[in-house]
Every structure is written in C-alpha cells, then in structure tokens.
UniProtKB/TrEMBL annotation:
Gene3D superfamilies, sorted: Transferase(Phosphotransferase) domain 1 (1.10.510.10)
Keyword Transferase attached: yes
Entry keyword annotation includes Transferase: yes
Protein name listed in UniProt: Kinase-like domain-containing protein
A Gene Ontology molecular function term of the record: protein serine/threonine kinase activity
SUPFAM superfamilies to which the protein is assigned, alphabetical: Protein kinase-like (PK-like) (SSF56112)
SMART domains according to UniProt: S_TKc
Pfam families: Pkinase
Domain Protein kinase: 45-391
InterPro entries, alphabetized: Kinase-like_dom_sf, Prot_kinase_dom
Entry keyword set: Kinase, Transferase
Length: 447
C-alpha cells in the first residue's frame, strides 16, 4: 500500500512484474464516446465504464501520479499547470506470453523509432494480466473522420496537414518494410510488415494549442503491431497464409488463394484502401466515408451476408461452356462500385489537381490485383514513397495545386481492373466451400 510502482522507459525498468495486491499509481478517467469509431466500444466488463474493449484487449485512460513516471519527451506538469497528461493502459484479454512478447518485440523494434509510429512507454504484468503503457491518443482515424469540421470547413491549412500526414504515414510504412540496420545494427538487413493497417489502427495524437484549423494539429501514427512481423530478405514474402488475419474490409484479394505467401504487399493494398477513404473525406467531408462504405456493401463469395471489401470475385464464362463440361474459373477484380466512386471523386467540382494525382497513385499503384502467385505489379513501398514525395513537393510549391479546382473533367479514366485468372484449385478450401454452398450468384466477368 506504500511502495507504489514507478514507470520509466529506461531499459532497467522497461518491463516489471507486480502481484495482484499491488496498488497502481493512477486513477482511470471517464471515457467519452469515440465519435462513431468502431475500433473500440465502451464496456463495463473487467474494469467498469472507464474502459474500452477491442478484439484482443481492454484499453483504459489513466492519469499517473506525477511522482511515479518519467518518460523522455513527456514533461511532468507543474503544480500550477492545468494541463493533464493522460496515458493508455492496454490490458491483453489472454495470458498468452508468446503473443505478448511478440507484440512487445515488434513495438520495441518498429514503434516510436520513427515519426508516425506509436511509442511504447513500458510493459508490466499485474496479477497475471499482461499490459502495455502508451501515451493517450485523442482518437483513431475513423473517429477523426467523423469530427465536425467547424466553420473553417476544409481549409487550406487542414488539407496541407492531411498531405503531410499521408506523406508521413507512407514514409513510416517504407521504413517498417525496410528498417534494416536501424533495427538489428550490423547483424544484417531485416524487412518488416505491419499486417493490420486500417483506420482504427491509425491514432491521432493532437497537439495542444492553436493551429490553422482545430483538426490540423498533431500527428497520425500507426499502432497495434500485434500482427506485425520481421523477416530476413529470403523470407520476407515466404510465409504461407493459413488464413490472413488482417481485418476483412482491408484484406487484399489474394487472401482467398490457398498457400498464398504473405508479403509486404498486403500493407500496400490496405493503406491504399485507407487513403481512398481519406480522399473521400477531403472531397466530401464528414459522413462521406460512411456513404462510401454503404456503396461497397454487397454479397461476398456467394454468401447473402454483405461485406464492404474493396474487391469481388467474378466468374469467367467461356463461350459454349456448361457446368457439366468445364470447371468454373474465377477472377478477382476491384469492385465496380469502387471504380465508380473513384471516377466520381475525380469529376467532383471540389476535386483539385492534388486529389486527382492522389487518386491516380491509389488507383494505379496500390489497389492493384495480384497477377499469378505474387502481387509484383502492386507498387513496393520505396518507389511508392517517391511518388508521395512528389505529391508533397507539389503542394509545398503551389497553393493552387491542392486548393484550386481542377479545370477539366476526366473521361474514361484508366480502369483499376487487371485480368488475372484464378482457377478453382488455387482458391483456399474455405473459399471453395463458401462458393459451393452460397445462394447468391457470382457476377460474370466481362473484362
């Protein structure tokens, strides 16, 4: 009751073990609804109303007594200051030591070392429960998109901030994919993968003080490295898929292939989906991301259950073929609804040259269907970052590039749909079973 723990990011106290009787030096803050975010839901289980629940963990917002923490770059408030520093305690729902150690290792290797990656402050086990300590974020990206833009609307300061954040996220992903000796020093090059990019896993750390716009401050960071991985060069794309674990909405179309080798390309696809939603928000404002989600909703793999994924399976009908004399062949394509949505954004009266170039990168280099066994035609992180360097450079040079409306409509933009054949024996067993028992017709491929 007297000797309360202290927390620091020094190597000596990075991880600590406490028995269940230890009193922690903090109190939990009440949580407000996350402005429409589906990443966390308020719960009264295992911690009361001051805790949020996700798929694998509970998260609570706490104020640590200022005598019981010391972290680099996080000042302790003075007695006269009204500024309150809050932290996030993430408690894992399972006692899986291996899973905990894997996530901690990834966070230590990849998190916080570069901008736009979440910083792990400390870890501990309290009464058998594994926990991680982070700075508290204002909200995640999905909740950010639902915030009121205020009277300033989509101002030039806000759009320029978005440009910088998208460039920063792409820069961070390029480093995650190629951290090399920054991670292991002279031991050799390493290649990473996030594995679960989605708006709920991108956090907004808002800066205090006035800025050009209430939403144009702080930094967006990648979080939740629980599905991340580090591999050597010869194995970075050599891990076979037994059912990709990343969130279904942002999973790439190759996730339906049997024995597909998981690669860094799944991050490029997922970030392309997120960036397309970001472009939607820039053009049409709050509420438009939900409209885009509803536009994508359709039966998936012959299941009557509708999903909002960005691709669909289509059946190739050969001339003269019948079910008796030929096995069906399938092709994965970007959903026609997504192609139409990109076209509508391109031709919106609010589209700027920046928006059109942003969409072109997404369309032609990120949301690209895999051909053959490897999605080699989808851009890799390093050349993709160069394209975002050019985007940012154009915005820095010319205000009109990202604010002035484009002066002509785009007719018949280059389609995203490529035409790889995926024959039944290449599909995973689970997908084949879903197709066979489904009651909804699969669209016919007309490419």
């Amino acid at each position: 009751m007297v000797f309360l723990p202290s927390f620091t990011d020094s190597k000596e106290l990075y991880h600590q073990e406490f028995d269940s009787d230890t009193v922690m030096p903090w109190h939990e803050c009440p949580l407000l609804q996350m402005d429409g975010s589906t990443s966390w839901t308020a719960t009264s289980t295992d911690g009361g109303a001051g805790m949020l629940s996700g798929g694998h963990s509970f998260v609570s917002r706490v104020i640590i007594h200022d005598g019981h923490y010391k972290f680099r770059g996080i000042p302790q408030p003075s007695p006269s200051s009204q500024h309150v520093v809050t932290f996030a305690v993430k408690k894992l729902k399972t006692q899986d030591e291996a899973g905990f150690n894997k996530e901690v290792a990834m966070l230590r290797n990849l998190g916080g070392k570069k901008a736009h990656t979440v910083r792990l402050l400390a870890t501990f086990r309290h009464g058998g429960v594994y926990s991680l300590l982070f700075p508290w974020a204002e909200c995640d990206l999905l909740a950010y998109w639902h915030r009121d833009l205020g009277p300033a609307g989509m101002s030039d300061g806000l759009i320029m901030w978005v440009v910088n954040q998208c460039h920063g996220l792409m820069t961070a992903l390029e480093w995650i994919h190629n951290p090399g000796r920054d991670v292991l020093g002279p031991k050799g090059d390493m290649y990473g993968r996030h594995g679960d990019i989605k708006p709920e896993n991108i956090l907004w750390y808002k800066e205090k003080g006035d800025g050009p716009h209430p939403l144009a401050s702080g930094q967006l960071v990648f979080s939740d490295f629980g599905l991340s991985s580090l591999n050597h060069k010869d194995t970075r794309s050599g891990i076979y898929n037994t059912g990709i674990l990343c969130t279904t909405t942002y999973a790439p179309p190759e996730s339906i292939l049997e024995n597909y080798k998981i690669s860094q390309a799944i991050d490029i696809w997922a970030l392309g989906c997120v960036f397309l939603e970001f472009a939607t928000w820039i053009v049409d404002g709050p509420g438009s991301v939900d409209q885009f989600m509803l536009k994508r909703m359709a039966p998936h793999l012959r299941s009557p259950t509708k999903r909002d994924v960005f691709w669909e399976l289509q059946e190739i009908k050969s001339p003269g073929s019948t079910p008796e004399n030929t096995a069906p062949q399938y092709v994965a394509v970007v959903k026609p609804q997504v192609v139409e949505w990109i076209e509508s954004l391109n031709n919106s009266p609010r589209a700027t040259n920046f928006i059109r170039d942003f969409l072109q990168i997404i369309q032609q280099h990120m949301l690209v269907i895999a051909v053959g066994d490897e999605p080699r035609n989808r851009a890799r992180a390093t050349p993709l970052k160069s394209k975002f360097d050019n985007l940012k450079r154009n915005c820095d040079r010319d205000w009109s590039y990202y604010m002035a409306k484009a002066n002509h409509a785009i007719e018949n933009p280059r389609p995203v749909v490529l035409q790889p054949e995926v024959v039944p024996r290449h599909l995973s067993i689970a997908v084949l079973e879903a197709i066979n028992r489904g009651s909804v017709a699969i669209p016919q491929f007309r490419g």
